[in-house]
Structures are given as C-alpha cells and as structure tokens.
Amino acid sequence: MTGTLYLCATPIGNLEDITYRVLRTLKEVDLIAAEDTRNSIKLLNHFEIKTPMTSYHEFNKIDKAYYLVEKLKEGKNIALITDAGTPGISDPGEDIVRICYEQGVPVTSLPGAAACITALTMSGQPTRRFVFEAFLPRDKKERLAVLEELRNETRTIIIYEAPHHLVKTLELLKEYLGGDRELTISKELTKKHETKMQSTIDGLLNYYEANDPRGEYVMVIKGRDRQELIKESQDSWKEMSLEEHMNYYESQGIDHKEAMKKVAKDRGIKKRDVYQALLENK
Fold first, then answer.
1. Strand pairing partners for 98?
2. 53-81 pLDDT, tens digit each
3. How far apart are CA 40 and CA 70, in angstroms?
4. How far apart are CA 10 and CA 191, in angstroms?
5. Domains, the chain, ranges and CATH?
6. What is the phi/psi pair of residue 226, to 5°?
7. In whole angstroms, what is the distance from residue 196 CA to residue 193 CA?
8. Is pLDDT at 232 greater than 70 in this prediction?
C-alpha cells in the first residue's frame, strides 16, 4: 500500500503556532524530510519528537524527491517540513508534490502558519484579491520583466525580501510602481519584536536608507486603482483625432459600424457621440 506525503506547516517564529494535528503527524510518520535538519532538530526536540529525519532542500530537490517518492511507494509515510511556514510556498516542496502526482502518490497538506498570509491579513491593504511574488528573481533581466508585469497590477502584491537587498528593491519598486504607492512592511512576524510599518514606497525607502534593515521582510503593496487605469487608457486614445482613431480600425478591415463601436469603448463615450462628432467634422 502506498504511503502519503504530509505537508506540515511549522511556526514562522512563535512555537505555539503549530497545530495538534501537525505534532501528531510528525510523531506518527516513518520519516521527516526537512529543509535544514540542523534547524528542524530544535523544533523536534522542543516537542519531544523522535522520528528520523533526512534533508530535502534546494540543492538536492530533484534527486532526493525521487528517492523519497520510492519510499512512499514502498508504503512509508513521510512528513515534509520547511525551516518555517508552509512547505511548497517559495521552497522546493512544490517539486516533490508535482512528482508525487506524476507517480500516483497521495499528498495532503496540514494547514498552519504562512508568512505571506500572516502579513497580508494585518497589512491594512485590500485582501480580496492578491498576487504572491515571493522573492523577486535575482537575474536582472528576469527581475525587471516581473516588475514590468507588476506595474499595472490591480491586485495587492506580496513580496519577500532579505535585509541586504531591501533598499535596492524599494528603489526598483519606486521606479516601476511609483513612490506614492501604499506599502505595509513587516518583519519578525509572530515574534516578540514583530514590527509593521505602513507608509508609501518613498516613505519606507527614506526610512531604510537612514536605518539599516535587519531581519526578513514581507512587503504588502497596494495594487493600481482599476478606474485610474481605465481613465489613463481612455486619455491615451484621445491623443488621436476621432478620424485617426476610426482609420486605425478601418485600416485593419473592420467595418465602419464596428469601428465606431470600438472607438466609443476606447474613449469611454457613447457610439452616437462618435457618430455625431464625425458628422460635424465632415
């Protein structure tokens, strides 16, 4: 009988943020795969868990995943834990989950702490729709491409950042999103010295240029206003005359009536207004 892979969320700071279900599972499984066994042994010792551990991290994630999947197919139950938070979010857990599905091995997730959700819920930014970017890519070309995609993002944006990259990232965010964009930044989540600061990108850039960043940061950035984007699009079309706008569509083979409909939509006006203006300009 095939075993099950259990994705077990561990605390992101406060040891009390672990569930009874996770503790029971960590005691009952045959093996725990941990991102850093040296870090995880402290957690296991605290809760007197004696289950054997093995390493599963970024640098062995594919070969070790296939090894662990073979153990699962032999009937072993395995728990996957990360250094902090929920496995599979911005860590190699996603690779073993994908391979489990390919190999027909059952996977289940035991909910718990996640830094991105913890920061989002107390950020004061809109929470109904959000996009999680984790750490921006270190490759310059890829990083700038992601920032370009985020320029007109209307959903709340969540980004992780390390202290030594924070100021540079804030500078890039100012360049691509604008210095007046609202931002809530958090660190030391769930710990005694948890801090949150809400300001603008400009305000927080000025602060961290004067105060050395320390700790791991979660940035929750307000998205663009949809109505503002629509107005910008409409205004950009108004740089053309109505005749030029009509020619733009008709030159693509679109008939006169359909072109008027598109011009009206682009400019945020009624079709009859387009018709009337064209008549008056004849």
1. none
2. 999 999 999 999 999 999 999 999 999 99
3. 23
4. 14
5. 5-113 (3.40.1010.10), 116-224 (3.30.950.10), 227-280 (no CATH)
6. -60, -45
7. 10
8. yes
- Report the candidate in 251, 242, 248 with the shortest Cα–Cα distance to residue 275: 242
β-strand partners of 195: 187
Cα separation, 233 vs 211, in Å, equals 39
- Could you tell me if 2 and 104 are in contact, meaning their C-beta atoms sit under 8 angstroms apart? yes
d(CA 164, CA 255): 57
Please report, rounded to a whole number, the percentage of residues in the chain having pLDDT higher than 70.
99
Amino acid (1-letter code) at residue 146:
V
Q: What is the residue type of 276?
A: Q
pLDDT at 282 (0 to 100): 66
Contact by Cβ (8 Å): 1, 76:
no
Strands 182-187, 217-221: pairing is antiparallel
Q: Per-residue DSSP letters for the chain?
A: ----EEEE-B-SS-TT---HHHHHHHHHSSEEEES-HHHHHHHHHHTT----EEE--TTTHHHHHHHHHHHHHTT--EEEE-SSB-TTSSSTHHHHHHHHHHHT--EEEE----HHHHHHHTSSS--SSEEEEEEPPSSHHHHHHHHHHHTT--SEEEEEE-GGGHHHHHHHHHHHH-TTSEEEEEESTTSTT-EEEEEEHHHHHHHHHHS---S-EEEEEPPPPHHHHHHHHHHHHTTS-HHHHHHHHHTTT--HHHHHHHHHHHHTS-HHHHHHHHHHT-
Query: What tokens appear for 274 in the block?
Result: 């387009």
